[in-house]
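Bumping my old thread because nobody answered last time. Still need a sequence for this structure:
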């Protein structure tokens, strides 16, 4: 797999989240209001970012290696993305380059703030050229050279509404993503709805607390949900995407 970048960065502006277990529960969009009320009764809203719009540009190889890992349910996988906040994009929130690594149910994330200089596209997003992206990846990973062969390319834009919750001690985080849409970053800015894209994500350092342990009663089942894989299939077709 060409996206093997596992050495943590060491520079001060780089952050690396602790490993957490990540649980995903897809849901029909029509049940979002019920689930929001259910979570409000069990967890406080995130005090800093209770809700907002997230836009991400995902990168992959021309053969869609990262997509194949998600579609095939690989145990270890990685995703590379740029991320913006707000709609329209909030310049004060910054642009973030992120590498998310997952081993089974455990995930970690490295991120570095990306300078918001350059000419924005029609969506107000600044997507770097290949050489600039490589330089920022070196900052993020601490590697002098990058094992990216073939090079990665911008593959899918994904935008959605997110509501966030966090326990008082910070050990449990929940997010509910709805109105999930995708667009081709190299084409016209046309947003397509992603079918079955709504998802609840729960992250914790250990077992879930008792008040969150009975999601099955709401008809939710844990799966290996991937908004990125769904976006690729929406943009490029299911089986044709798998064929590269």
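Sorry it took so long. Here it is:
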């Amino acid at each position: 797999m060409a996206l093997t970048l596992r050495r943590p960065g060491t520079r001060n502006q780089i952050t690396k989240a602790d490993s957490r277990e990540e649980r995903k529960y897809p849901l029909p969009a029509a049940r979002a209001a019920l689930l929001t009320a259910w979570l409000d009764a069990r967890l406080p809203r995130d005090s800093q970012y209770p809700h907002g719009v997230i836009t991400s540009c995902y990168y992959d190889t021309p053969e869609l290696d990262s997509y194949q890992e998600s579609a095939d349910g690989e145990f270890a996988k990685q995703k590379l993305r740029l991320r913006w906040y707000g709609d329209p994009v909030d310049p004060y929130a910054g642009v973030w380059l992120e590498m998310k690594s997952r081993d089974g149910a455990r995930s970690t994330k490295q991120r570095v703030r990306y300078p918001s200089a350059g000419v924005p596209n029609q969506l107000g997003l600044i997507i770097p050229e290949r050489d600039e992206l490589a330089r920022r990846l070196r900052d993020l990973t601490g590697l002098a050279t990058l094992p990216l062969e073939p090079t990665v390319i911008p593959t899918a834009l994904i935008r959605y509404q997110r509501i966030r919750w966090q326990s008082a001690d910070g050990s449990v985080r929940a997010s509910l993503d709805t109105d999930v849409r995708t667009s081709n970053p190299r084409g016209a800015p046309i947003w397509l709805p992603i079918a079955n894209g709504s998802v609840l994500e729960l992250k914790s350092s250990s077992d879930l607390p008792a008040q969150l342990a009975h999601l099955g009663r709401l008809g939710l089942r844990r799966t290996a949900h991937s908004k990125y894989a769904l976006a690729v299939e929406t943009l490029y077709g299911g089986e044709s995407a798998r064929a590269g």
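The longest strand covers residues 153-166. Let me know if any region looks off to you.
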